[in-house]
Amino acid sequence: MPIKLKGEVNPDLNNERKKCSFNVEEMARWYHGGEKKLAEKRQRETLFLDDPDLQDDIPTSYMSHKEIYEYGVGKACKIFTKIRALQEEGKGGVDNFMAILGGMLGSGVLKEGNPMAVHFVMFLPTILGQGTTEQQVEWLGRAWSMNILGTYAQTELGHGTFIRGLETTATYDPKTEEFILNSPTITSYKWWPGGLGHTSNYAIVVAQLYTKGQCHGIHPFIVQLRDEETWAPIKGKSVEIGEIGPKLGMKGVNNGFLGFDNVRIPRKNMLMKNAKVLEDGTYIKAPSSVLTYGTMMFVRVVIIRDMANYLSKAVTIATRYSAVRRQSPIDPAKPEVQVIDHVTQQYKVFPNIAKVIIFQLTADYIWNLYNQVTSELDKGQLERLPELHAISCCLKAVITQDASNGVEQLRMACGGHGYMEASNLPNTYGMVTAACTYEGENTILLLQTARYLMKSWSQALVGDALVPTVEYLRDAIKKRSNKWDPSITGIIKALQLVAANKIRLAYEHVENRKKLGYSHEDATNLSSIELAQSADAHCRAFLVQSAYEMTRDLESTVSTSLATVLRQFIELYAVETCMKYIGDLFRFSGLTEDGVQELQQRLEDLLTKIRPNAVGFVDGFDIPDKILSSALGAYDGNVYERLFLEAKKSPLNQDPIPKAFELHMKPFMRSNL
Ligand SMILES: CCCCCCCC/C=C\C/C=C/C(=O)SCCNC(=O)CCNC(=O)[C@H](O)C(C)(C)COP(=O)(O)OP(=O)(O)OC[C@H]1O[C@@H](n2cnc3c(N)ncnc32)[C@H](O)[C@@H]1OP(=O)(O)O
Ligand SMILES: Cc1cc2nc3c(=O)[nH]c(=O)nc-3n(C[C@H](O)[C@H](O)[C@H](O)COP(=O)(O)OP(=O)(O)OC[C@H]3O[C@@H](n4cnc5c(N)ncnc54)[C@H](O)[C@@H]3O)c2cc1C
């Protein structure tokens, strides 16, 4: 039987859409930040997704490593040519870049990742954030128009986390007014930067600065890697450069390695907005050494929305599939049900829908805070930098981890078909799990937040003023236990009490160990499980609180029918968080067994209430099929036809008898006759 797509929508999905109690278009408007933004998003998607030059003829799954790279670079060039043309028509703007680089439109047009992403996400922002005005004038124009392509080369084979331990050196030579770059050991080779392999001809290189025989710590330098005309690595063997080989995911990103052998760059190539080296080699310190870390903070902030985007794709696929897939009757006398009717399936899928909403709201919050704090930094005000660092670190850690767990859970929620590349869930997982490691490995980031929380706790103990994100510690000092209150505000207070007590215990355990004679650093390491967990608890309380506060006036901005469903998801998120941290709530919040049973009931009630709206809700994320790229998640729900059509594309299916039969199987099978 020839397999064709039916031109109609799967009847189960049709029924789901009829059941929806709110207006899906209104939801899409709310989710995407209003009518204008939604219209712009759709226009942009049409422009890129319908462009005949940007269609995927062969799935990348059947390409070789080299082909994936070449295909990806070709496509990236087409994409940016289009963006350039839009800019020339005055239709530029940051939104186009954010969309084309991120996990929504970006992942729809370049599934395996964009080898030029780090140019925009890190190379350019570092010049902007850390270059002087003259350096910006010199570099930004050519970089914006992509006449040069850059990457961010910080991590080395031996060090990614502990960046003070980086080994690449930049030694100032006052005679020639140059820095000499060297990679003195194998572990000092740069390793990982996106696009470094073969796609960049410049890099921001983070190296230990030496001048007048003294080391001044790590600083950023702009270094040319390849000839602009021939693309050959510069000056023969003095730059050794290549790509690091196949990875779990992000297969098209061309992550590379790089070593230097006495490579000279002019003095003006050290980014000198903060620290400076004068002609004679005199070093002038930055107002704060952590300003060098600014680009990492920027990326940690933008990752939050990226995770919301990837998770929204995965959950759209799993929700639609769960409505189409029928398996096992509940009542043996009745037909098999849609798997979405099994309550355990709802429990796998709906909390992940809730997370998309929470992460999206958090992305707005943290982006606004980032912009406020960076505009203060430009005026020389550094006071709020530690708070932004602390909250962005734990949010990046918790949200990438939850998104990664969520995508994996949703893959499993799609049974065997979720394991197929055609579901697009394996590839999505590869993209998302990478974010748990890049831009600061998650445990490290939790420990950074914990470091801040320890200071905040000691300030709270002596009654000092606290910044908004940790203000709750003051109340917790006065009141160590609570009466369980199941309202959302009660849940927020309970989660804050959990966080505060975990912070208190971690603090006390560090202090106790110090009293036993351990150094501060050893005491901190010995207490680091509790420290990381305290940062996690702080972040969870923050997520529920900020989502609640950001939707306080929901009823005045959207219809009652939409507000009702959004509130159900926010409540589901709060209740599910409680269920996950039940032991901690028992320990610290006055939660009783009755309270737990009530929470369980409430969780189940919420799943039941959400059930008829689930498909409509994910439709409201407004993700085109070409971005979902999934046989299981397409709008029409023609799952089986699409799976078959994808399987037919396998090169093995182009010939009924495989070459391997004559070559191996036949001789083998007959060899013992
Ligand atoms: C549309 C967009 C889509 C986005 C998609 C992105 C796609 C791109 C894909 C991948 C790109 C990936 C890129 C990379 O991975 S680049 C490399 C990233 N590397 C890291 O993140 C390294 C992690 N390590 C660190 O950040 C640091 O070394 C450290 C924080 C772990 C420790 O640093 P150290 O110098 O040892 O500091 P201390 O612990 O001693 O702390 C000193 C002091 O400074 C504070 N601090 C640290 N970092 C910052 C910061 N960024 N901003 C502000 N303040 C910071 C720290 O808290 C201490 O403060 P103190 O307690 O008051 O002393
Ligand atoms: C897909 C991808 C893209 C990347 N892109 C770039 C890029 O463009 N540019 C760039 O410069 N880098 C890039 N990186 C590198 C990335 O930033 C680092 O891999 C990351 O910061 C983690 O560092 P690491 O690999 O040294 O891990 P390690 O620090 O070696 O981590 C190994 C283990 O040790 C633990 N550990 C280490 N130190 C401590 C500590 N102090 N306390 C407790 N536990 C500790 C960690 O928690 C982890 O469990 C990329 C990485 C990936 C995976």
UniProtKB/TrEMBL annotation:
Residues 293-454 form the Acyl-CoA oxidase C-alpha1 domain. Its cofactor is FAD. FAD binds at T155, G194. Residues 489-669 form the Acyl-CoA oxidase C-terminal domain. InterPro entries: ACOX_C_alpha1, Acyl-CoA_ox_N, Acyl-CoA_Oxase/DH_mid-dom_sf, Acyl-CoA_oxidase, Acyl-CoA_oxidase_C, AcylCo_DH-like_C, AcylCoA_DH/ox_N_sf, AcylCoA_DH/oxidase_NM_dom_sf. Its main location: other. The keyword Transferase does not apply. It comes from the Eukaryota. Residues 23-148 form the Acyl-coenzyme A oxidase N-terminal domain. GO terms for cellular component: peroxisome. The active site is at E439. Keywords: FAD, Fatty acid metabolism, Flavoprotein, Lipid metabolism, Oxidoreductase, Peroxisome. Pathway: Lipid metabolism; peroxisomal fatty acid beta-oxidation. One of its GO terms (biological process) is lipid homeostasis. Belongs to the acyl-CoA oxidase family. This is Acyl-coenzyme A oxidase. It comes from Pseudolycoriella hygida.
